[in-house]
Design a protein that fits this description.
Belongs to the sigma-54 factor family. Sigma factors are initiation factors that promote the attachment of RNA polymerase to specific initiation sites and are then released. Helices cover 45% and strands 7% of the residues. The protein is an alpha+beta fold.
């Protein structure tokens, strides 16, 4: 075999992921909080980028104003409530993104200084005097971490006068309490662990029981309970003795809690020798108790959702617009850009030129993200106008390919746009993926959204008779009468997804 070099010419197609395209895709799939962090990192690392504040625009000199484009009055798209007469004109309703993010073509050679010495080095401000008329606005809880159940119990334990021996027992019991407020270990095991450590004076089980009974009076009522029955009895014992039906409630919890859990009211009436109206009052008292007292203490910080798109109805038309608060407006710093010289290859000039190019790419990627997000949200609102007008029962089946065809994009792009992006509507805040659902066939040959079926099931359960709740088979039959073909196991799956208990657990006395 002869080894020799040769030259061959071939034609082919390949997809090249340029840095600009990679950046645009990465920004597209970021959530609102991640996008704000990304923009802040870009502002910190790139001196050519700056935020375009309104006060800066007003204080700019006439020469600078001539080289800066102002943002459009609104970036919105209108939809027509009548779907049959909806006419979507992209040129008319589409967003106009020629805003402050656009790079000016010509920059002045010399710009006035926008800061003075006094703006940077200011004298220390005088301490503010407190006005007694002003309220503190919850000063104690401001910027304080959330309190856990253990912190709450330890605070009460530190205020309780106990001997050193009882303090050790109390801390051992406190270590065995879970987030619900229940003891995770039997008292005997806790006693065995403490008895091994006490060599001089033997520890008795009665001492542990005595400390436990004292800790069971802590707030919230029901903590340090062994099980559900013990938790409910602790709360009943802390009620005033003159509470109506207190003795009957103790009787039911002590001897017939299993019948109560199975909702076997016939056996419960016969064994407790209570009448139906009496049992109804007893159950009202029991249902007012908290089976998980630890949930009263807030353990986590609330998660706030910032909507990316706002939908509102104006003059009979659904209006879609981007939330202007999700990200700051950024632009190129004209002062630094004016320092760039064309025929200079010095290190400083090369650095400024590279940073200017990266700033242009970043602003363009943000513009592309906003345009794509607004376009997809507009098509979703156009398709789901029935939901906005009438609720979940009017939701239409929708899949990613439907929106992808309307906006002429790939399904993967639609998936990135609708992930962790939220829409604020008059009916609440929903993730964009919420508007996508599978379908179920109807007798008339049409399709019904699974979200609409869930809403129908929830409506039927809410209107059922408490004495005789609807079974999954009965719900499937009632949906079949409305022309929706759905199996019993499908109803059970949707019911469990909505955290609705089965019919035997929904049964109760009126």
């Amino acid at each position: 075999m002869v080894m020799k070099a040769s030259l061959q010419l071939k034609l082919g197609q390949s997809l090249t992921m340029t840095p600009q395209l990679q950046q645009a895709i990465r920004l597209l799939q970021l959530s609102t909080l991640d996008l704000q962090q990304e923009i802040q990192e870009a502002l910190d690392s790139n001196p050519l980028l700056e935020t375009a504040e309104d006060d800066q625009a007003e204080s700019a000199t006439p020469d600078a104003e001539q080289n800066q484009d102002t943002a459009p009055d609104e970036t919105s798209a209108d939809t027509v409530t009548d779907s049959s007469a909806a006419d979507w004109d992209e040129n008319e309703n589409g967003p106009d993104w020629q805003s402050e993010n656009e790079i000016p073509d010509t920059l002045p050679d010399d710009l006035p200084v926008d800061t003075a010495w006094e703006d940077v080095y200011q004298s220390a401000p005088a301490p503010a005097t407190r006005n007694d008329d002003e309220s503190d606005h919850d000063f104690e809880t401001r910027n304080s971490p959330s309190e856990t159940l253990r912190d709450h119990l330890e605070w009460q334990l530190n205020l309780t006068p106990l001997s050193e021996r009882d303090q050790a027992i109390a801390h051992a019991l406190l270590d065995a309490v879970d987030e619900r407020g229940y003891l995770t270990s039997p008292v005997e095991d806790i006693y065995a662990g403490l008895a091994d450590d006490s060599d001089e004076d033997p520890l008795e089980l009665d001492e542990v029981e005595a400390v436990l009974r004292r800790l069971q009076h802590f707030d919230p009522p029901g903590v340090f309970a062994r099980d559900l029955q013990d938790c409910l009895l602790i709360q009943l014992n802390q009620l005033p003795p003159e509470t109506p039906w207190l003795a009957q409630a103790r009787l039911v919890i002590t001897h017939y809690i299993n019948l109560l859990g199975n909702r076997d009211y016939a056996q419960l009436l016969r064994r407790s020798r209570l009448k139906e109206d009496q049992l109804r009052h007893v159950l009202a008292l029991i249902t007012g108790l908290n089976p998980q007292p630890g949930d009263i203490i807030d353990r986590t910080e609330p998660d706030y959702v910032i909507p990316d798109v706002i939908v509102r109805k104006h003059n009979g038309r659904w209006r879609v617009e981007l939330n202007p608060e999700i990200a700051p407006r950024i632009r190129v710093n004209a002062s630094y850009a004016s320092l760039i010289r064309r025929a200079d290859s010095s290190a400083d000039n090369t650095y400024l030129r590279d940073q200017l190019q990266e700033a242009k790419w970043f602003i363009k990627s943000l513009q592309s993200r906003n345009e794509t997000l607004l376009k997809v949200a507009t098509r979703i609102v156009e398709y789901q106008q029935g939901f906005l007008d009438h609720g979940e029962e009017a939701m239409k089946p929708l899949i990613l390919s439907d929106i992808a065809q309307l906006v002429e994009m790939h399904e993967s792009t639609i998936s990135r746009v609708t992930t962790q992006k939220y829409m604020h509507t008059p009916r609440g805040i929903f993730e964009l993926k919420y508007f996508f659902s599978s379908h179920v066939s109807t007798d008339e040959g049409g399709e019904c959204s699974s979200t609409a079926i869930r809403a129908m099931i929830k409506k039927l359960v809410a209107a059922e008779t408490p004495r005789k709740p609807l079974s999954d088979s009965k719900i499937a039959a009632m949906l079949g009468e409305q022309g929706i073909k759905v199996a019993r196991r499908t109803v059970a799956k949707y019911r469990e997804a909505m955290h609705i208990p089965p019919s035997n657990e929904r049964k109760r006395l009126v």
